[in-house]
Amino acid sequence: MIANSAFFAAMVVVLLAFWLLGQLDFLVPYKRLVFGQHLWLIVNAAVLVFLNVFALSYAVTRGLFLKDTGRKLAHVDKQLGTTDTVARDLSERLAGEE
Fold it and tell me: How much is the pTM?
């Protein structure tokens, strides 16, 4: 989930950077001046956008994919505790470990 969120955030930042490069082509003659004075500000802004997009995508995927996990795990635990279970070998293995 973290890797997927990081990949999505990186793609958003790269696409945003390419779009901005296309929109700001009139600044090409001044690139040494702009990068010389404002490189760290640009890098910090890109990192900040990455972190915000990463946090948003992580929260959304966590909310979607881990919905009702506790209830589902309680149901599986209750099913493994019964004698008539589909996963009998797993129940026996869990009983043997205790």
Answer: 0.66
